[in-house]
Specification:
The protein has a domain at 65-156: Beta Complex (Ferric Hydroxamate Uptake Protein, Chain A, domain 1), CATH 2.170.130. It has a 5-stranded mixed beta sheet. Helices cover 28% and strands 13% of the residues. By secondary structure, the protein is of the alpha+beta class. The protein is built from 4 helices and 5 strands. It has helices at 2-25, 68-73, 79-86, 137-143; strands at residues 65-66, 107-110, 113-116, 131-135, 152-156. The longest helix has 24 residues, at 2-25. A hairpin with a 2-residue loop joins strand 2 (107-110) and strand 3.
Length: 158
């Protein structure tokens, strides 16, 4: 009887340990401070600890979207400067089926209304921008139709 109780107690302890393991693995690393490192005997100074932010992985930014926070933190005056500073690849001229007589440029839309090509970006003040989204040629053709062979930039206002 005593042996059975000991076996049952061991099984319960093992089950409790297995249940606690996943919960321990899901703890938030932002609330865990790095352990202090003791001073070295030779120099007497404390080595630097790794900053707390390094333990938390950062979210990736979307390469096809300029968020509201990015717009507000940018110190520029218009949409062209904003895109030139944050996502310059959006303004590169497309490669492929362009000829000397057929100039292809990116289409610019604000709240669903076409404003023109990349020159229209300079006329949009930064205070009227909430988000900016880039569409590839295929995505722009599906969303806006028409002449969007080089892609499109859509600006939404607050």
């Amino acid at each position: 009887m005593n042996r059975r109780l000991a076996t049952l107690a061991a099984l319960l302890c093992a089950a409790a340990a297995l249940r606690a393991a996943p919960a321990a693995a899901q703890t938030d690393t932002a609330s865990v401070a790095p352990a202090p490192v003791p001073a070295t005997a030779a120099t007497g100074e404390r080595p630097r600890t790794q900053p707390l932010d390094a333990a938390v992985p950062r979210a990736r930014r979307n390469v096809n979207l300029i968020t509201y926070e990015e717009v507000r933190n940018a110190h520029v005056s218009d949409a062209q400067e904003l895109i030139h500073n944050l996502r310059p690849s959006w303004l590169r001229t497309p490669r492929g089926a362009t000829t000397f007589g057929n100039h292809v440029d990116i289409a610019v839309f604000k709240d669903g209304i076409r404003l023109g090509s990349r020159e229209a970006l300079a006329t949009i003040p930064i205070t009227t921008i909430r988000t900016v989204r880039y569409y590839s040629a295929v995505d722009a053709r599906q969303k806006f139709g028409g002449d969007t062979v080089a892609g499109a930039i859509e600006i939404s206002s607050p």
